[in-house]
Amino acid sequence: MLKLLSSSASRQLYSHVASPCLRISTESSTTLLLQALSSITGSTRKNPREAGFYQKAFFCSDSSNDGAGEVAEAEGKSCEPEADNADTSSRSAIVPTNPRPEDYLTVMALPLPHRPLFPGFYMPIHVKDPKLLAALQESQKRQAPYAGAFLLKDEPGIDPSVVSGSDLEKNIYEFKGKELFNRLHEVGTLAQITSIQGEQVVLIGHRRLRITEMVNEDPLTVKVDHLKDKPYNKDDDVIKATSFEVIATLRDVLKTNSLWRDHVQTYTQHIGDFNFPRLADFGAAISGANKLQCQKVLEELDVYKRLQLTLELVKKEMEISKIQESIAKAIEEKISGEQRRYLLNEQLKAIKKELGLETDDKTALSVKFRERIEPRKEKIPAQVLQVIEEELTKLQLLEASSSEFNVTRNYLDWLTALPWGDYSDENFDVVRAQNILDEDHYGLTDVKERILEFIAVGKLRGISQGKIICLSGPPGVGKTSIGRSIARALNRKFFRFSVGGLSDVAEIKGHRRTYIGAMPGKMVQCLKNVGTANPLVLIDEIDKLGRGHAGDPASALLELLDPEQNANFLDHYLDVPIDLSKVLFVCTANVIDMIPGPLLDRMEVVTIAGYITDEKMHIARDYLEKATRESCGIKLEQVEVTDAALLALIENYCREAGVRNLQKQIEKIYRKIALQFVRQGVINESPVSKVQVGEPNEERAEIAETSTASVENSCNEKNVQNFVEADIIPMDQPSDQIQGATDQSSDSKDAKEREKIECGVSEAVEKVLVDTSNLADFVGKPVFHAERIYEQTPVGVVMGLAWTAMGGSTLYVETTSMEQGEGKGSLHLTGQLGEVMKESAQIAHTVARAILNEKDPENPFFGNFKLHLHVPGGATPKDGPSAGCTMITSLLSLAMKKPVRRDLAMTGEVTLTGKILPIGGVKEKTIAARRSQVKTIIFPSANKRDYDELAPNVKEGLQVHFVDEYSQIFDLSFSYDHSDN
Questions:
Q1: pLDDT tens for residues 618-675?
Q2: Is residue 448 annotated as part of the catalytic site, yes or no?
Q3: Residue among 424, 809, 882, 893 flagged as catalytic
Q4: Which candidate, 780, 778, 837, 843, places its Cα nearest to that of 813?
Q5: b/e for 529-561, b at 16 or more Cβ within 10 A?
Q6: Which residue out of 61, 582, 925, 973 is catalytically annotated?
Q7: Is 882 a catalytic residue?
Q8: Per residue in 847-889, pLDDT tens?
C-alpha cells in the first residue's frame, strides 16, 4: 500500500520545501468527508471561521527557489493566514517552479517496484544506482527537481503475489537502458523531488505522463506527453452519485480504520479541497488493492470510469474491514470467560510476586516438573515425554480447587520423579565382590558362585542384564541379608518389599487413576525411592503370596518377573511402559513347592540348605557374637564365651538349619552379662566417670539418673529396673544417687558402701567366662536332647532321614506286633502321617512280605501277625515320598528278629518291584545325619551327583552307600555281626 506520511513526517519533509502557512481546524473524519462532498458539489461557506467546514493550505517555495517565489508573488499568493479571499484553485500544496512542470517534456525515468505514485501523494523510494542518484541531485541543484515515476511491469511467467518485495527491489536495479525501458508501464506520474537523504529520495506526484520514446539509456531518460483528464460535466448526476457512493463507503471504512482517518486529514491539510478526479485518485491510492489495479486507475483519463474503478476498490476495502471486524470480535470472545480469568490470575500472580506472597501455584508446579525432566530429557522415551507435555498443558487449564487438578498433579509428580534412563555405575570386580560376600556371610558357596558368574558375564559383555534369582531355604539361613550383600558387591541400590500374605493385585500393578487414593505399584515406588533404573529388588516371602477377591498377585508377578516382558512393564497408574530389564530381582522362599508353576518357571532357583555345626560355630564366633557385643556396649576383654559353650549352645538349643535362633540365644547371654555389669557398677562410656564427695545431693541424683538411662539404652534390656531393687549398690556411684536403694538395704551395708566411696576404693570386676558349666544359667535348660533315642537299636526300629522347612532331621520308624493268629496279618499306622506316607507304608508292607517270602519262605510272620507301625512325634505332621526304605527295613527287622546297625540311617522311596527312587534335600539330610552321630548313610544312586557337590566339611566322617534296589539295602542292613550292635 502506498505510504502516506503522517503529520510529523510531513513536517520533516516540508523543511526542505517551505514552511506552510495553514489555516487548520480539528474536524473529525466525518467533517472531512463532508468537506469533500461540499467541494465536489460546489457548495461554499461565506464565513470560513464558522466551525471550519473545510481547510486551506498554501505552500511557499524554499528561499533557494527564487523563481517559484516570484511566481507566487505575481499570482498574489502570500503566506498570510488572513488571505481568506484566495481562489479555490490555488489551494494546492504543489507550487510550480521555474520552469513550470508542464514544460518538462524529457525526464529521467524512476522505476517503482510496488505501487504507482498518484498525484498529490508523497512516496519515499531508495535509489541504489549511484549514477542515477547523482543525476537526481544535480537536477535538484539546477532548480529542475522533476522526474518521471513509472511502475515496473511484472516479469513474464512469474506470479507477482509469490515474489517477495525484497527480491523485486533487488531485481529492478539490475535492469539498465533499453531493458529497463521495456519493463516500465507507459503511463506514470511527474514527480517533484522534495528531498534527498542518502539513498532515500522523497517524491511528490504532480500530474500524469505517458512515455513516447527513450532519449538516453544511462541514466534512463524518456520523452513524455503530459496527460489531462477528459472533459466532464461536474453537474452530471451519475458522476455525483458515484462520488457520493465513494464518499459513503470511505466514511464507513473510516469508522473502523484509524490509518485511513490519518490519510484523509493529511491529504486535506496539505493538498486542498477534494474534487472528482482527486477523490478518485485518493480512494485508489490509500486502498489495499494490488499494483495492477492501481495502475489501471492511474491510466484511466475518463473521470467517471476512474470513479467507478475507485468505487470498486473501496468496496473491497469495506468487505476487508468487515472481515477484520469479525475476526477481532471472534478473538475477543475467545479471550472472555476462562481466558479473562487466566489473565486476572496472571496479574494476581505478578502482584503476589512483587509483594513476596507467591505461593506454589500452577506455574510453580509446572516449573518444578520441567526442572525435574530437563537434565534427563534426552533419556526419557518419546512416548513418556509426550504424555508429560500433555499433562502439563492440562494442568494449566484446570482449576486448582478441582479434584482433577490434584489427580493430574500427583500423576505428573510420579512421572517426573522416576529415574528414566538413569543407571548406577556397576562394579564388575570379581575379587572385590568375593571379598564383600565373604565378609558378610560364611559358607553359602552356591549362592556366591552364582553371583560371581553374573558379575563375570557382565564384565565380558560390558553391560549387565537383569536376572531373576530365587533363594530357597529354611528360615534364618541368611536369604534376605544376602540380598543386601549382593547389592553392595554390584554397587547397586537396594530395595526390599515383602509379598507375604499379599492378596491385592494393585500392590504389584498399581491402581487406576480414577480411584480415590490411587497409587502406583511397588515396583514404581521402588524406582522412585532408589533413584536408579537398575536397582537390586528383593521380593521376600514369595512362596507365601495370598489370593483374595482383588485378584491373584502371583499371576500379576508374571509380567514383572518375566525377562521377555518386563522391558515394557505397564503399571495401571502410570499407564506408560517402564523398562525393568536392567533390574536384578532376588526372591526368597522357604518352600518352592508353594510357588505357582508358571511363576517358578521364570526364576533361577538357588537352594540354601542350611548350616552344619562347624559353619554355625564360625558364624557365631565371627559375626553374631561380635555384633551382639557391640550392640550391648560390652567390651571384648570383659566377656569370654568358650568354644565348648558355643558348641553346646548349637547342639542343645539351636539345631535348626538357620542361625536366627542362635543369634537370639547369644543376645540373651550378653543381655544377662550387661545386667550383671550394671548391678556391679561397671558403666562403659559413662558421661560422668567419677563423682566427687561433697557435691549437692540434687546434682548427684541427676547424674545418677543420666547414667542409668545411658546404660538402659545401650543394653536394650527391659528389666534394668531391677537395678533399683538389687541388693548390691554400684561402687562407683554414691549411695544417695540411687533412689530407693538405701531404703531396701541394711544399715550396715549402707555404711560400708559409703565408707568405700569416701576412701576412694574401687573393686575390680572380674572377666565373665561363659562355659558349659554355667551356660544353663544364661539360656536355661537345654531345649533339644540327643536325636539318638536308642544307644542300642532294638528290633523293628530304624532311623530314617527327613527334610522339613526348618532343615533336615532324623526320624525313627518303629514296628511291633500287636496280635497273633493264623490269617490275622494286617498293618496299623500312627504318628500323624500324611497321605503319601500312608501309601508308602502300604507299599512297604507288600514289598516286605515279598522279600521275606524270598529270603525265608517258611516264615509266616506277615500272614499271622497284626502289626503296628509308628513314627514318633505324633504332634508333628509328617509326610513325604522318602520313607519307604526305612519302613521296609523296620518291618523286616521285626519279622526276622534282627536289629539293624546302630550307626545306620537311610532315605528313599521304593516301588512295588523294589526299585529305589531319588529323594530331595540331600544336604539337609546329610547335616541331620552328622548331628545324630550317624556314620553310614544309604542314599539312592540317582542322588550321587548331589552328594558329590556338597562341601567336604559337610561330608566329613560319613560313609555313604548309593543303591538302586532294595536288595542292596537289605544286605547293608542285616549282613553284619550282631554282636556289634
A1: 899 988 999 999 999 888 888 999 999 998 898 888 878 888 889 999 999 999 999 9
A2: no
A3: 882
A4: 837
A5: ebebbbbbbbbbbbbbbeeeeeeebbebbbbbb
A6: 925
A7: yes
A8: 999 998 888 888 888 888 899 999 987 667 778 888 899 999 9
